[in-house]
Specification:
The protein is an alpha/beta fold. The chain contains 13 helices and 14 strands.
Length: 331
């Protein structure tokens, strides 16, 4: 019996988003365009600097997989999110947001003491996002957070690539993939960020194992993982570990592979102000589409439209009613 369209696992983070200039990265010694993991104290130092110089643009529940599941749920799909948050005020904020958006979760009333994960998102005038993340209690996501009986009720499981940075979280991702395969549930993985395939490639490959049914990545991540400058060659290597895949290409749209054919998805010309969450939205819209019976082509068109919309405003998520308008526009 299928109860959920997508069962996802990922790092639960509260995003604090700022609009900054490139000079800030030079002064603070931050690598632009990447996600960098940090301990609590150095992240707080950067947060204090940001707060002194720039207004907070937005605070919202985040995390790559959570953003994707949010999109699936707001389009009308049923989702379950396995994660870990602490019993602090930030955790209360995060859990409340999940409940408001009808996302089922493994989180009970009694949560462990500690600090809920936090991500500083810095967006530059070119709309590129740079992230500094303190995982907090999210780094303790473990195999015990995977509920096999619920996994068996899903059409797809969705694994966030950021999980490979923690031994326990990586083990949880591997358990989820194994449970899904055992119960005939399709597996999907996202590389999440160029830093994951550049600095944690062994962990990514460990989770990939003998392959997944569906892989999400962007062009830069594909080339880094494949160790190929040529996009076509990188695609061929991706096809050795993924039955099907989605590669986003920014202003050039996306390339899909449905297992037999390559499908080009046209981009939408928009004025981008914040690319944070664009990939998460693409994945969410695409997963919604294919779990509701859409073709790869149709699902890709919805995903392209949705990701083009989310980059026109700050934050990685759209308002609930915007998803319905996107479906109406697609049809």
């Amino acid at each position: 019996m299928t109860t959920y369209d997508v069962y996802g696992i990922g790092n639960a983070l509260v995003d604090k988003e700022f609009e900054v200039d490139d000079n800030f990265f030079v002064e603070a010694g931050i690598e632009k365009g990447f996600m960098t993991l940090m301990d609590e104290h150095p992240q707080q130092v950067i947060l204090d600097l940001l707060s002194q110089r720039y207004p907070l643009k937005k605070q919202a529940g985040g995390g790559s997989a959570a953003n994707t599941l949010y999109a699936v749920s707001q389009f009308g799909g049923k989702t379950f999110y396995a994660c870990k948050v602490a019993n602090d005020e930030t955790g209360d904020f995060y859990v409340s947001a999940l409940g408001d958006h009808n996302i089922s979760t493994n989180l009970g009333a009694q949560r462990e003491p500690g600090m809920t994960g936090r991500c500083l998102v810095m967006v530059t005038p070119d709309a590129e996002r740079t992230m500094l993340t303190h995982l907090g209690i999210s780094s303790q996501v473990s195999p015990s957070d995977v509920q096999e009986e619920i996994v068996a009720q899903a059409k797809f499981v969705y694994i966030e690539g950021y999980l490979v940075t923690s031994d326990s979280a990586r083990a949880a991702a591997k358990k989820l993939k194994a449970c899904a395969e055992q119960h005939g549930v399709k597996t999907a993985l996202t590389f999440s960020d160029p830093a994951m395939v550049e600095y944690f490639k062994d962990g990514v490959n460990e989770v990939l194992g003998d392959g997944v049914d569906l892989l999400f990545c962007n062009e830069q991540e594909a080339k880094i993982w494949a160790d190929e400058d040529d996009f076509e060659k990188a695609c061929k290597k991706i096809a050795t570990v993924a039955t099907s895949f989605v590669i986003t290409r920014g202003a050039r749209g996306a390339l899909l592979f449905d297992g037999q054919n390559y499908i080009d998805i046209a981009p939408h010309s928009v004025k981008a102000v914040d690319t944070n969450g664009a990939g998460d939205m693409f994945s969410g819209a695409f997963l919604y589409g294919i779990t509701q019976g859409m073709s790869f082509q149709k699902a890709g068109e919805l995903a392209s439209l949705a990701s083009a919309t989310v980059v026109t405003e700050f934050g990685p998520r759209l308002d609930p009613e915007q998803h319905l308008r996107l479906l109406e526009k697609l049809n």
